[in-house]
Amino acid sequence: MSDKIILLVEDNEDDEELAVLAFERSRIANAMIVVRDGQEALDYFFGTEANGGSDAKALPQLVLLDLKLPKVGGLEVLKRLRADPKTRRLPVVILTSSKEEEDMLNSYDFGANSYVRKPVEFDRFAEAIQQLQMYWLVLNEAPTSGGDRS
Amino acid sequence: MRGFAHSIVETIRHPFLILDGGLCVCEANAAFYLTFQADEAETVSHLVYELGGGQWDIPRLRELLEEVDRNGGSFKDVEVRHDFPHVGIKVMVLDAHRVVHDDGTPMILLAIEDVTDKMQGIDALYKLNRELDDRVGERTAQLEAANRELEAFAYSVSHDLRAPLRALDGFSDELLRSYADKLDDRGQHYLRRLRSGTQRMGQLIDDMLLLSRLNRGEMKRELVDLTALAEGVVAELRGREPDRTVAFVIESGLSAVGDAALLGVALENLLGNAWKFTSKKLSATITVGRQTHEGAPAFFVRDDGAGFDMDHISKLFGAFERLHTQREFPGNGVGLAIVQRVVHRHGGLVWAEGVLGHGATFHFTLPQEELI
Questions:
Q1: Interface residue of A12, A15, A121 to substitute, partner B, most B CBs within 10 Å
Q2: Which of A34, A65, B126, B301 minimizes the number of CB atoms within 10 Å of its CB?
Q3: DSSP alpha helices (H): ranges in chain B?
Q4: Is B357 in contact with B369 (CB distance < 8 Å)?
């Protein structure tokens, strides 16, 4: 249906597979790209072609970002995204199992658009994913270009 | 008369000195000689300040005696501390009177109470108190550290256990949905059992976490409207299962002093239980009210449901102990343990009565006044 890409930053293989499963159930086809740690995420946006960077490739429509990531943590990735004009306006949804209030507050402080706790029960998890998809990819209007108004 | 006065002085237990107008010792009693380890020869007729080879040359004493000498009168309860070279530190309480003898000669009566031992006792007590304070402080710090460790452990256990649970739940769900045709009835049955197991495990983890959290944390102390809390819980229960016919009788104006959040959890569990154990009846009645128990107000939650056998009362409040099978009534057995913890933390008591097949009543007391 669309060329809208979702970038999923998730280190847990099971959660990755479950998220993909949930998206498949929703029947709204979106291309999903998965990166498995904070460094890979940064390389995707800021790296060169050689190490996974996207250069002029289209930015994702939505980033689903886990907080507990190896190498570079989710909050650090978020900070870097918000610091760069190219990615400053990108819709970022924190998708985490953390129940720590501090994590939520920090996420919002550093510019996350939304904070969702992964439910334990799969059907609620699937429903959450689908709701995210419906909202951020269909209802919500995302900026098409980067941070500079050219 | 002299002999009589002499006898009096000798009988006095405290060291006693009689000084003449020039502050020389006329007489000293046995208690004086004993306490200051002196004898008559080195005491009588000597200037008071020269006693014990100058030991009594105490500035404070000079001040006091000269004052009395000049202006007459007396002093009482004056504490003097001095380090006597041969006797050691002595703390003394002095009384002195200037009197005029029958023949007109002035005299100063000096009564000395040796309170050294008492003072040392008091000092030792202060020291002991400080040591105890320090020790209590240390223990408290240790306990707090242990509590924090325990909480971090409980949190990480529940948090880290949840992730694989999600996988179990999700993949078994997908199996049931998309691969049901590849499984026979028995296979599907096993899958369903698997799923229900993971769901129970998730609930258990949440309960464990809640139970561990109930032990720590500061409790608020404010006036809580128990009636309103109960009504809130009832609304939620009805919302979950609107088809059930249950009459709730909640006494108005129920209140207590405590932590609203914790009390809310307790009521959720008590009312939730009442709701659950009346689920097999076509219609049920659940009552929340207050009675007087041993002169103090006691709240109760009563239902007319499955009840329980009083023989098993000792298991009732145990964590993870159950009196019914999962098939009869689902649950983990922590609800009442949670209620008990909450009530106990408030300084109250909780107890129960039941009749198998007829219903159960759970009573609990809570503080009524705010502790200032």
A1: A121
A2: B126
A3: 2-11, 30-36, 40-43, 51-54, 59-71, 116-178, 185-215, 226-240, 260-277, 335-345
A4: no
* Mean pLDDT of the region B234-253: 93
Q: Which residue of A has its CA nearest to B166?
A: A120
Q: Which of A31, A69, A62 is nearest to A133 (CA)?
A: A62
Q: What is the pLDDT of residues B202-218, one digit of tens each?
A: 888 877 777 777 776 67
In a 3-state reduction of DSSP, which class is residue B251? coil
Which among B302, B311, B322 has a CA at the least distance from the CA of B356? B311
Pairing outcome for strands B245-250 and B283-293: parallel
Q: Write the Ramachandran bin of B157: left for phi over 0, alpha for psi from -120 to 50, otherwise beta.
A: alpha
Closest chain A residue to the Cα of B152, Cα to Cα: A100
Q: Which residue has the higher pLDDT, A99 or B311?
A: B311
Pull the structure tokens for residue B10: 């000798």
B124 CB neighbour count, 10 Å cutoff: 10
Query: In whole angstroms, what separates CA B143 from the centre of its chain?
Result: 14
pLDDT in tens, B315-329: 888 877 788 877 788
Q: How far apart are the CA of B233 and the nearest CA of chain A, in angstroms?
A: 23
pLDDT band at A138 (very low <50, low <70, confident <90, very high): confident
pLDDT in tens, B60-110: 888 888 888 777 778 888 888 888 877 788 889 999 988 888 888 888 899
Q: How far is B194 from chain A (nearest CA, A)?
A: 13
Per the rule left: phi > 0, alpha: psi between -120 and 50, beta: everything else, B77 is: left
Backbone angles phi and psi of A102, in degrees to 5: -60, -40
Predicted confidence at residue B372, as pLDDT, reads: 44
Q: Which of B173, B174, B202 sits opposite A120 (nearest CB)?
A: B202
Q: Beta partners for B351?
A: B363
Contact A66/B at CB under 8 A: no
Three-state SS at B37: coil
Interchain contact, B165 vs A120, CB within 8 Å: yes
End-to-end CA distance of chain A: 28
ipTM given for this complex? 0.72
Contact A14 B164 (CB under 8 A): yes
> What's the full length of chain B, in residues?
372
Nearest Cβ partner for A21 among B163, B174, B199: B174
Alpha-carbon dihedral of residues B299, B305, B309, B312, nearest 10 degrees? -60
A122 and B164 within 8 Å at the Cβ level: the answer is no
